[in-house]
């Protein structure tokens, strides 16, 4: 996995370890990283993201407890060969709730729905289809 796919934003309400955890789960679920793919070392990802090693360690520990990754001393951390049983496809209700939360945050920041849509379109154009 290329660590540039994960970004920690200081203006995000989620703690950095949770941002890392969620982004890695999203990369796994979208197929951008595959079972058996090796994740960056704790030190490397911490350096790349400019966060403490403990922050990355917590994200990796949570991912391992949830069954997304497997860690082996001396071998590093890799994506688990099988998805956790709790990993079901996201529901349309979840998407609607996330969209509403996003729109609420956008409006609270002084933007409107068109600004939000333009920003999403620009991000998708930069990142390519997922």
From TrEMBL:
The keyword Transcription applies. This is GntR family transcriptional regulator. Keywords: DNA-binding, Transcription, Transcription regulation. InterPro entries: Tscrpt_reg_HTH_GntR, WH-like_DNA-bd_sf, WH_DNA-bd_sf. Residues 71-93 are annotated as: Disordered. One of its GO terms (molecular function) is DNA binding. It comes from Rhodococcus spongiicola. The keyword Ribonucleoprotein does not apply. Residues 14-82 form the HTH gntR-type domain.
């Amino acid at each position: 996995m290329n660590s540039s796919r994960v970004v920690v934003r200081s203006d995000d309400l989620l703690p950095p370890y949770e941002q890392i955890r969620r982004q890695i789960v999203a990369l796994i679920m979208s197929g951008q990283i595959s079972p058996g793919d090796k994740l960056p070392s704790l030190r490397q990802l911490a350096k790349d993201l400019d966060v403490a090693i403990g922050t990355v360690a917590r994200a990796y520990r949570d991912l391992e407890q949830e069954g997304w990754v497997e860690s082996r001393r001396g071998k590093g951390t890799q994506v688990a060969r099988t998805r956790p049983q709790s990993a079901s496809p996201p529901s349309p209700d979840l998407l609607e709730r996330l969209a509403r939360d996003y729109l609420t945050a956008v409006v609270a920041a002084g933007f409107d729905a068109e600004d939000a849509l333009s920003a999403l379109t620009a991000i998708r154009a930069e990142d390519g289809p997922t």
